[in-house]
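Morning, I've got a small favour to ask if you have a moment. You're getting the sequence in one-letter code plus the fold written as tokens. Thanks so much in advance, here it is:

===
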Amino acid sequence: MDSLRAALKEMPIIAILRGIKPEEVKDVAEVLIAAGIRILEIPLNSPKPYKSLANLAQVAGAGILSGAGTVLTVEEVKAVAETGVNMCISPNTNGAVIAAAKRERLICLPGAATPSEAFVALHAGADGLKMFPGESLPPVVVKAWRAVVPPQTLLIPVGGITPEGMAAYRAASADGFGIGSALYKPGMDLEELKLRAQTFVTAARAVVA
């Protein structure tokens, strides 16, 4: 939990690498880390995800958090833990998955779309909340959640986040942003990835300054 809070404080972006292949992980991760991003996620609906996660765990150094996304079952949590990454991220709230992640000593970010789901997730031991889908949870919703959840709760909208939209979310007290296809797409040229990463990082630094 402290490592997640520290990483988000340094750079409030989770880079979501959906569709990445194992042989691409090292080069892509190095570009993103060099740009300043400190949290990287590979969803399990990517090709050979566990091999990719193992590769990500190897390239992630001190201060870098690596995790699996779209984790839906207890069995998947166990397989994720074996790859060496340290985060478990889901699109939904499932108490059994959250409990399994905590047993495996993984940072756990379940998805929640309503206050009821948010409180169920927190009660189950979630380390923060993935507000998903972000397209239907605009800054005004973040502000409303902040008024009722425990003050230390990490709120991270995911989906539809743009560099231009970060300021409004931050003003509503979002702690971070999950960025997927707006940042990375499978097979993307590394130079294009570098430029996109720099754009998001610059925007993020501006809103937390």
